Amino acid sequence: MAHRFEFEGDGKRRPFTYDEIERLFDTADARVELLVSSGRKGALGALRDAQLLKTVYAFGLRRTEAVMLDTVDLHHNAKMRQWGRYGAVHVRWAKAAGGGAPRRRTVLLVPEFDWWVPGMQQWLEQARARFAPGDDLDALWVTERRTRLSAGYLDRRFAELRDEAGLSKDLTLHSLRHSYVTHLLEFGYADRFVQEQVGHMHASTTSIYASVSSDYKNRVLAEALKALIEGEADDR
């Protein structure tokens, strides 16, 4: 029988560690600073690429979901007014199920990722217009040729920055989505909330994505043992 859904149980797929995430984004940011300081072309494109990768991670997006975002897909979150229009992302090109049309969902920005907001403000409010995309192009991520950025370019750019950062080739762009799921669970978000954020139809798919760190598991175990010991002491 043909599989209706992509298999996510490949053992080589794993999330980034927090240190690896930091190295990847530091490398992307350093490329921007280098191009600006040297006066070479490409600084705006490097800024775009860095913010795009951060968006993939901060919202747990698939590549197509990310590149198909339009400027109107950035939304307010009434509970977090201080973020302005950067409190949520409306995904309109999620993976289709059973041959149907692309699904839609709204992904909320969580407080642990509020570092994403200033970078997106800089890109949308200052840098994007310098590509002169015109009123007829709503794409959030535009190229120097005034077209929408492609998923293939995103894959290639990620691989270049990953290699430049000295990270394992086993880490793919999709690993950022795995990292999002894993880190939300480590932050203590409910399984159902995480499932809705990433748009999984089944909780079992979300569980395959999750691979919490040894530090996290040890911390949870230590807390459980502490509660057990304290409970036994109270019984005495």
Poorly predicted regions are 1-8
> Portion of residues in helices?
40-55%
Structural class designation: mainly alpha
Strand line-up in the sheet with most strands: 1-2-3
Mean pLDDT: 85
Gap between N and C termini: 60 Å
Number of distinct beta strands: 3
Q: Bin the strand percentage.
A: 5-15%
Q: Which shape, going by the Cα principal axes?
A: globular
Please state the CA-atom Rg, rounded to the nearest Å. 20 Å
Largest sheet: 3 strands, antiparallel
> Helix and strand string, N-terminal first?
HHHEEEHHHHHH
Number of helices: 9
Descriptive account of the structure:
The protein has 236 residues and is mostly helical. Helices cover 51% and strands 6% of the residues. It has nine helices and three strands; from the N terminus they run αααβββαααααα. A three-stranded antiparallel beta sheet has the order 1-2-3. A hairpin with an 8-residue loop joins strand 2 and strand 3 (103-108). Helix 2 (43-59) runs antiparallel to helix 4 (116-127) and helix 2 crosses helix 6 (173-187). The longest helix has 22 residues, at 214-235. The model is unreliable at 1-8 (pLDDT under 50).
